[in-house]
Design goal:
Layout: E1 2-6, E2 14-17, E3 27-36, H1 39-46, H2 49-54, E4 59-60, E5 64-72, E6 84-87, E7 90-91, H3 97-100, E8 111-112, E9 124-128, E10 132-134, H4 147-157, E11 166-170, H5 174-185, E12 190-195, H6 198-206, E13 211-214, H7 220-227, E14 233-238, H8 249-252, E15 253-261, H9 273-278, E16 283-286, H10 294-305, E17 314-319, H11 323-332, E18 337-341
Parallel strand pairs: 11-12, 11-14, 12-13, 14-15, 15-16, 17-18
Antiparallel strand pairs: 1-2, 1-4, 3-5, 3-9, 3-18, 5-6, 6-10, 7-8
Helix pairs in contact: 4-5, 4-10
């Protein structure tokens, strides 16, 4: 089968012919119909410091998928050949303190598809049955694989009350864009979108942002505080990881408001805790991954109801062999979500 491998500890990746995997105990083999590129995949491709410390080549990349179950390993109980599935990429242990408390998204022993084991940038992938998500047949092939990052957006937005609240989203990558739509679908009254890229801000408008701010030409603090008549917003979502943003987000959240952090700064940051958090009574929530399986269920309901339309977020569709084009677009910032088709685009 064709697969995109991180074949050596250096920037880039290679398209290679490799053996089709065999599903192990309690695993299934999935014929991959679509797979989407994540920021994590881009980090691995660019071979940044995080990737250098985590990835052990050679390894098949990718962790967002949709496809059809074609083979069952020993001990599989529920899945059937022909099932239309996606998958949760985080394999959990089920027995650590966090798992026992129902906090599976922060399992101490998490292993990740495409990071700690071969992934889904391939024609076939082997996945634990426990990680399968059984798709509604009506969900399009270009939307089904991005339910996983949608879960991150849902977790971030719904880490507090949303009904009748105002919200600012800093960082309009795919998850930030999804968060705008999720917020509006879950009762947020007004949303500001902040980024340095007009291409992404245009998508933010399609996702129903009420105000877009290019922070490279306009102060988001001035724009948001002016729009809210000096009150600030109820909710701030930090989705960029850009260090400069952390000097802005706590200035635009109202006293008693909430800041939810999903972006990952590259280095430690200096934050004025006394004035910007403690004295303002701000709630700060760190978000990682998706709650299993609550956020998947919410995503399914939002999509099936029509309250959430993710089609503006998917901007490019390529054959798997053109993966490098997708990575280049991500480097340039001229894309939303990129979907790859291992079997070719029909």
């Amino acid at each position: 089968m064709r697969a995109v491998l991180k074949s050596e500890p250096a920037a880039g990746a290679t398209l290679e012919d490799v053996p089709v995997p065999s599903p192990g105990p309690e695993e299934v083999l999935i014929k991959i119909k679509t797979t989407a590129i994540c920021g994590t995949d881009h980090h691995i491709y660019m071979w940044n410091e995080w990737a250098q410390n985590r990835i052990v080549p050679p390894q098949i990349m990718g962790h967002e998928l949709a496809g059809e179950v074609v083979k069952l390993g020993p001990g599989v109980k529920k899945a059937k050949v022909g099932d239309y599935v996606s998958a949760e990429s985080h394999t959990i242990c089920g027995h650590c303190t966090q798992c026992m408390l129902g906090e599976k998204h922060v399992c101490q022993n998490t292993r990740i598809l495409g990071v700690d084991r071969d992934g889904c940038f391939a024609e076939y992938a082997s996945v634990p049955e426990a990680n399968l998500w059984f798709n509604d047949p009506a969900i399009p092939l270009d939307i089904a694989p991005i339910q996983e990052p949608l879960g991150n957006a849902i977790n971030t937005v719904l880490s507090g009350e949303t009904r009748g609240k105002t919200m600012a989203v800093f960082g309009c990558g795919p998850i930030g864009l999804m968060a705008i739509g999720v917020g509006k679908a879950c009762g947020v009254s007004w949303v500001a979108a902040v980024d340095i890229n007009d291409y992404k801000l245009n998508i933010a408008t399609k996702m129903k942002a009420d105000l877009t701010v290019n922070s490279s030409v306009q102060s988001p603090i001035d724009a948001i505080m002016d729009y809210t008549r000096g009150a600030g917003v109820d909710i701030v979502l930090e989705m960029s990881g850009a260090s400069a943003v952390f000097n802005q987000i706590f200035k635009v959240v109202r006293p008693g408001g909430r800041v939810s952090l999903l972006g990952l700064p590259a280095k430690p940051l200096l934050v004025d805790f006394s004035n910007d958090i403690v004295m303002k009574g701000v709630t700060v929530h760190g978000v990682t991954g998706r709650r299993l399986w609550q956020d998947w269920i919410v995503g399914r309901e939002l999509l099936s109801s029509g309250l959430l339309d993710l089609s503006p977020v998917v901007t490019h569709r390529f054959d798997l062999g053109d993966y490098a084009k997708g990575m280049d677009l991500m480097t340039e910032g001229e894309c939303g979500k990129i979907v790859l088709y291992p079997g070719g685009i029909e």
